[in-house]
Amino acid sequence: MARTSRLLTLLQLLRGKRLPVTAAALAGELEVSERTLYRDIAELVAQGAPIQGEAGLGYVLRPGLFLPPLMLSADETEAIVLGLRYVDQRGDPVLSQAAKEALAKIEAVLPPALRETAQNPVAMPGPPKRRFPDNPVDLKVYRAAIRAQAKLEITYSDVEGKASARVIWPIALGFMEEVRVLAAWCELRQDFRHFRTDRIATAQETGERYPGRRNALVKTWRTVFDKKLGERAATG
């Protein structure tokens, strides 16, 4: 195994370990000597990897941002830049600014050759959407509610313009080609619904958290959504 590939594999192994793992165990998985393993650990630490530990006790990868030059290939750089530029074009102001800042941080840690790839990529996003429908409610309200697992009371108008009051459990924001939608559990319908954000006239937190964990709710939503898509495909 080439050294660069071995270093990447070593990082992946450490990411998958919650408890310190000995050099002997890591060397065995990589099929190298412990001496080589110690040199590889030292190289990763020199590159900025937050590895904590010492010989005989074991090593653990601490949480933290780590993007040394060896972490990205040319194709991976292209993929990241394409995604961030697409978000910059089509995201709301919050995500657009975040995409610019993330790209600047990534470019700062890339070696010269890959920095050139990032600044002049082969893959480019299509023309930006000129304008999305206006949102009566700032999207930051939905972000805050999703992160806090807060119930929202909204006023929503359907395609015919008929307004209704709903209490929903927001779980995700969807950025579609033409509109943005809020995925949520609707207490009125007792089912998952997708609400176009441009049709939500008002939204405020009720002061209650919805039960369970958002991650579990998202998993159920995806299962239900995939099932509905499959049923539609089956019926033509």
UniProtKB/TrEMBL annotation:
- In what residue span(s) does the Helix-turn-helix type domain sit? 6-59
Matching entries from Gene3D superfamilies are given as:
Winged helix-like DNA-binding domain superfamily/Winged helix DNA-binding domain
Report the residue ranges that make up the WYL domain in this protein: 142-204
Kindly give the SUPFAM superfamilies that the UniProt entry links to this protein. Winged helix' DNA-binding domain (SSF46785)
PROSITE patterns given in the database record:
WYL (PS52050)
Q: Which InterPro entries match?
A: CBASS_pafABC_assoc_protein (IPR051534), HTH_11 (IPR013196), WH-like_DNA-bd_sf (IPR036388), WH_DNA-bd_sf (IPR036390), WYL_dom (IPR026881)
Q: In its UniProt entry, what is this protein called? A: Transcriptional regulator
Q: Which organism is it from?
A: Labrys miyagiensis
